[in-house]
Amino acid sequence: MKLISWNIDSLGTALIGVSPRAVLSRRVLENIAANNPEFVALQETKLPGEGPTQKQLEVLRGIFPDHEIVWNCSVEPARAGYAGTMFLYKNHLKPKVSCPKIGAPEPMDFEGRIITLEFDNCYITQVYTPNAGEGLSRLKERQIWDVKYADYMEKLDKQKYVIACGDFNVAHREIDLAHPDRNRNRAGFTDEEREGFTNLLKRGFIDTFRYLHGDVTGVYSWWSQLARTSKSNNSGWRIDYCLVSARIADWVIKSEMIDSGPRQDHAPLLLEIDLELVK
């Protein structure tokens, strides 16, 4: 089974935009499709509450003609056109789809941050974890989110195998970013956020990239758009993850980043696992 996860940073722009960045984004989507994954998880779709337009769906279905599409968008009291997630899955699959609320501080539960696909033998879930914010203005709320999300994941894991992917908005270890010293106590690399991710792993989950690749350095999933040379200099962060229940860690075949070319921001993740889905 193959899954690809990507924080796309505005799906609508990627699908029908005309800027150079939009063209680069479509190329990444086409590259994702060429890998022929059973599942594509997209974060930060930034769609309105009612979801994609017909034009956007037409373009998306043109790229992924063999996939069903489900989404979870930001709705009131959250900001419109903010955050959001989407799953595409092969149309022969028949999962039960849910967009759970986990009891996070308002309005996080209304920002379209989680979609879960349920099969008889496993859950496949994605998350777009809230950022701690400029000046760590949302750090306290983020800490509560981390606990609530870990509770949710542990509950799933007690029932079935779990495969979880997404933008977790944290560099867990110093080797997960190029310049840990100059980024301490910045959003995504505070002690509190790192501890929250450690707590999640302790609930029975494995970071598949580290499981396969050990302490390899210099491999990142995000490069800031604010620094023109961040990608060419590989001044990146690894803040996107594919996690699995620890008891199926040995089933993981591949966990790596997909080359996104010159496009800065997030790169897609590819997970391959020896798991046959039971409908």
Note the main attributes of this structure.
single chain, about 280 residues, alpha+beta, Deoxyribonuclease I, Chain A, six-stranded mixed beta sheet, 7 helices, 14 strands, about 25% strand
Instruction: Write down the CATH topology.
Output: Deoxyribonuclease I, Chain A
Q: Which regions contain 5 or more consecutive residues with pLDDT less than 50?
A: none
**Count of distinct strands:** 14
Question: What is the string of SSEs from the N terminus onward?
Answer: EHHEHEEEEEHEHHEHEEEEE
Q: What would CATH call the architecture? A: 4-Layer Sandwich
**CATH homologous superfamily annotation:** Endonuclease/exonuclease/phosphatase
Under CATH at level 1, the class stands as Alpha Beta
Q: Which geometry do the CA atoms define? A: globular
Total separate domains: 1
Describe the strand arrangement of the main beta sheet, using strand numbers.
Answer: 3-4-2-1-14-12
Mean pLDDT: 97
Secondary structure: helix percent: 25-40%
Give the N-to-C terminal Cα separation: 14 Å
Radius of gyration: 17 Å
Could you describe the 3D structure shown?
This protein is α+β, with helices and mostly antiparallel strands. The chain has one domain: Endonuclease/exonuclease/phosphatase (Deoxyribonuclease I, Chain A, 4-Layer Sandwich). 26% of the residues lie in helices and 25% in strands. The protein contains seven helices and 14 strands. A six-stranded mixed β-sheet has the order 3-4-2-1-14-12. A six-stranded mixed β-sheet has the order 5-6-7-8-11-9. Helix 4 packs parallel to helix 6. The longest helix has 19 residues. It is globular, with a radius of gyration of 17 Å.
